[in-house]
Amino acid sequence: MKHIIISILLLTVSFNGLAQQVAPKVKVTDQEKTPTSQWQGKRVAFLGDSMTDKRRIGTSYVYWEYLNELMGITPFVYGVSGNQWNDIYKQSVKLHDEKGTNIDAILIFAGTNDYMHNTPLGEFFSETTKQTNFNGKEVTRKYRTPILNDSTFCGRINKAMSYLKNNYPQQQIIIMTPIHRGYAKFNEKNVQPDENYANGQGLYIDSYVAILKQAASYWAVPLIDLYSTSGLFPMADSHLQYFHKKDTDRLHPNALGDYRLAKTIQYQLLGLPSGFVAE
After folding, report:
1. pLDDT at residue 123 tops 50
2. Cα 181 to Cα 193: distance, rounded to the nearest angstrom
3. Cα radius of gyration rounded to whole Å, the chain
4. d(Cα 196, Cα 215) in Å, to the nearest integer?
5. Mean of the per-residue pLDDT values for the chain?
6. What is the pLDDT of residue 66?
7. What pLDDT digit, counting tens, does each position of 142-201 carry?
């Protein structure tokens, strides 16, 4: 069955007085829903930035709202526009303060603002040498220690993931990579080039995506690679149908883009346990 799109388009007036279309919410059909999956009724926390923010930045319906319809999850949203991975630690603490461990899964969708704000990548570990017992003999071996800080991308991820791993050992924790970045101009002093430009560190967003993949491996959590699998590509004009405003915001998905995100996430989640809490 074809997806039914609400036919009446809302109009908004941009700063130059030209009317622009706002993409309406996609109507989710019964055939798309997976109400009997392991995710039905699960309490899921969403950490992140503007893509997750409850204020619906650039969209009329956020991906986690679609997931509520598609999968029957109960979302608890902590994402805040502009937040970076150092804020994911703060969001995690807030989650624990408010919900304790009464949660089934935690999804983290962040990293694009770390790239945009020129955050150094840093290293996951510092390295020294230590003595240890190997087969009954004292030997000296290289030894690594995770670096936890707020000043580097790796350090920020380590700090947040260390907290989550220690406080949520029975919950499913999932890292999601940022999507591709298009051009955005929010005002004269907030202009963000597209991803074909390196940031102030001389790094492309691909480098930050690669670090998140390493982090998922080190911290033993699943990774949903939205950068690769969402299909959203704002550098192509044909994909502007999925983004907020073609002239000033090719960064934030609109309701159609969020629907595509949600469908991608839905089918990734169906292949993962919804948690590990004994009933």
Report:
1. yes
2. 8
3. 20
4. 24
5. 92
6. 98
7. 999 999 999 999 999 999 999 999 999 999 999 999 999 999 999 999 999 999 999 999
State the sign of the Cα–Cα–Cα–Cα dihedral 242, 244, 246, 251.
Answer: negative
* pLDDT tens digits for range 17-40: 333 457 899 999 999 999 999 999
User: How far is the CA of 88 from the CAs of 4, 45, 80, 111, in angstroms?
Assistant: 36, 12, 10, 10
Q: Which two tokens stand for residue 148?
A: 């936890």
Instruction: List the end-to-end C-alpha distance of the chain, in Å, as a whole number.
Output: 37
Ramachandran angles phi, psi of 142, nearest 5°: -65, 145
What pLDDT shows up at residue 21? 59
Is 173:92 a contact under the CB 8 Å cutoff? no
Separation between Cα atoms, residue 143 and residue 159, nearest integer Å: 19
Task: Give which of 12, 19, 34, 53 is closest to 263, Cα–Cα.
Answer: 34
Model confidence at 214: pLDDT above 80:
yes
User: Which tokens belong to 277?
Assistant: 């809490």
Pairing of strands 137-146, 125-134: antiparallel
CB 247 within 8 A of CB 153: no
| 277 band by pLDDT with thresholds 50, 70 and 90 | confident
Name the CA dihedral angle for 49, 233, 274, 209, rounded to a multiple of 10 degrees. Answer: -70
The strand pairing partners of 131, in sequence order, are 140
pTM of the model: 0.91
The runs of H, that is alpha helices, within the chain are: 63-71, 85-99, 112-116, 153-167, 205-218, 226-229, 255-269
Q: Which of 201, 213, 206, 203 is nearest to 124 (CA)?
A: 213
